[in-house]
Amino acid sequence: MAVAAVGQICSTGNMLHNLKQCRTLVQKAAAKGAKALFLPEASDYIASSPAETVSLVKSVQESEFVRGLQEEARSKSIAINVGVHEPAEGGKKVKNTLLWIDEKGEIVQRYQKLHLFDVELPGGPVIRESDSVEKGSSILPPFDSALGRIGMTICFDLRFPEISLALKRQNAQVITYPSAFTVPTGKAHWAPLLRARAIETQAYVIAAAQVGFHNVKRRSYGHSVIISPWGEMLAELGYEELKRDGNGDPIPEIAFADIDLKEVERIRKEMPLLRRTDMYPEV
Ligand SMILES: O=C(O)CNC(=O)[C@H](CS)NC(=O)CCC(=O)C(=O)O
Predict the structure, then answer these.
(1) ipTM for the complex?
(2) Domain CN hydrolase, which positions (predicted)?
């Protein structure tokens, strides 16, 4: 058994402001003895336009945000799963990346978001992520950590069960969905989609979420969760705006759950989900 921590923040266009929230959470996670802290998609910044998203991007070597978190991971000896932006080839777009920083502070795994959020809903949201983001081209094989075998996906990937089933087939025991869900789609779909992914993969699901207003136009749903391989909500955070301290800075939130790999094995043994790949193609 090992403790996982899920963190909820409200990123703006200011990387140092966002780093401050994340540092607070690393300290709280380490104080609880967590083996890993899961942070949302785009923790480094959320901009107010596609052009601003591209103008703010920095390589991990040059990003004070990533370097700051590597330092926190090393000094507190805790792994950190965090969504950031990285420059794409050609300089016109960015990558929507998920990093695994190990407890020594090294970036040891990297996943690039496969499915981009291009939507036009009456009454909002109207977002074309592909205007500023280059889509990824591979599923990252699950890798070992102190919490078990981790499978990584990002946000809108949640709507495509093929990716989580592929990760399950490669024996992922924990699947992560760092997110910045919109409020209307979050209200309608967030919790049922996440529970379904946990139930059908028989894996822990950890979904760290952005919450509240990032700028005047953009707001996220929050409701970060850790879900058991049986589909139970083990930890849940709120969907209100974050409270603010005396300086007006948002106070980030954190929740914890035990990850018990014996539970994963027990449920998979008691209820084997053997796919009829003779009837439909293997994913
Ligand atoms: O813009 C950034 O920098 C960070 N990226 C995001 O916030 C992304 C793309 S706009 N958000 C989503 O994928 C929300 C999906 C969603 O809300 C749904 O599937 O309903």
Answers:
(1) 0.95
(2) 1-261
